[in-house]
Structure prediction request, 121 residues.
Amino acid sequence: MDRKKFLKSVTFGALSASVLVAACGGDAPKTENATTAPAGESAAPAAAAADCNDLSGVAEADLKQRESVGYVTKSADPEKYCGNCRFMQVGTQANGCSGCQLFKGPVNPEGNCKSWFKKDA
Prediction:
């Protein structure tokens, strides 16, 4: 089994029933790591957002690119977050997380960087 297939199977296998229920719009129990989406916006389920902070598979050069744009997993400005940014690519990562056009790896919908640009309505 190659690395890509292995990572996909491990990621899928790690999903709990509560995350799957939440992803389908059901009520899932909240966890200690739960985060909420900014007002007026829907985001990935809280547990899935926590998984989207895992950078273990991201190359060192790509991590430096993330740092160069000042990416953080939680925006300090409630009006500017990845979930309403033009560069966010919803659900493009192998683990179901969203990505960004500006750097590689998963993106937390509540994150932010210096390159944030409001998504067209």
User: Anything to note?
Assistant: Residues 3-14 form the longest helix (12 residues). Confidence is low (pLDDT under 50) at residues 10-50. The first strand starts at residue 88 and ends at 89. The two ends are 43 Å apart (CA to CA).
